[in-house]
Structures are given as C-alpha cells and as structure tokens.
Amino acid sequence: MSQIQFRKVAFGQPGLKPRWTHGNKEGVGTAYSGGSRIWFTIFRGVITETYFPTVDRPQVRDLQYLITDGKTFFHEEKRDLETTVNRGSDHALHFTVINSDPAGRYSIIKEVVTDPHYADGRWEGRNYQVNVRDLDQAGSKAA
To answer: Please, are residues 96 and 109 in contact by the beta-carbon 8 Å criterion?
Structure first.
C-alpha cells in the first residue's frame, strides 16, 4: 500500500470549510470486540463518517462510488441513486446497502461490517482499498 505524505499546507487549499454531515443516520456500527477501534455511520447508502482510533476523531466524511458511462451520465451514490439499507441481524451491527440507478441500469450492493479482529478499518472492492489507519497521522501513536 502506498504511503501518504503529510504536508503543512494542503494542495488545493483552502478547500471547503468543515461542516457536519446529516444527523439522520440509517446505520451506526462498530465491532463487538474491544480490540477494534473503528466506528462508522451510514446515510443515504454511503458511509458518512468513520471514526478512528477513538469515537471523537472523525477520519472519513463520505466513502462512496461515483459512477459514469463516460458520455451520458454521472452519478454520485448519495445524491442520485435509490437506496435500501437493511440490518443483517438483530444481534450484530451489520448492514446490507443496495443503491440502484432510478433508470434500472445498475445496482451497487455493499455489505458494511467491522471486523472484530482488526484494530483499523478497511474497505475493499474490485479496484480499490482504503485503510482508515493510513488517513490518521497519529493513528499508530494513539492509544
């Protein structure tokens, strides 16, 4: 995995002003193990916050797909798709998220669950991998 280099001034700065995400969540989750230090929330079919290494340290604001055919449409998962979120069990914080194109061209199906055997968060897909620990400068130093 590539290393993230930290700079004193962000490229493209000043960027957008920080703001809160929506409070009306469809899901909130963490692992059952005390060894896992990651929490997440779901809104409109996307992971809207990820907290690591503590619940007061947000690391990711939105984790979603951007979809296009390169010519006729560009979709943002959170804004343009129809969403269904189901809990996988009454006894676990596991969610199945289905985001579908209103025109019926495609659907994205995601299983969102934290692994109790890992202390960091990891999302994998066909062509991507995101590690929350890599996004936190102090993640390896935090208790």
So the answer is: yes
Strands (E), 27-103: 27-30, 39-43, 46-51, 58-60, 66-68, 74-76, 82-89, 92-100
Say which residues have a Cβ less than 8 Å from residue 103's Cβ, sequence separation at least 6: none
Degrees (nearest 5) of the Cα angle 3, 20, 60? 20
Torsion sign over Cα 93, 20, 121, 96: positive
Residue 16 is given by DSSP the state P
Q: Quick one: DSSP state of residue 38?
A: -
Q: Across the strands, what pairs with 39?
A: 30, 51
Mean pLDDT per 10-residue section of the chain, whose length is 143 residues = 61 68 82 77 89 81 86 91 90 86 89 73 54 44 38
Structure tokens at 55: 């619940």
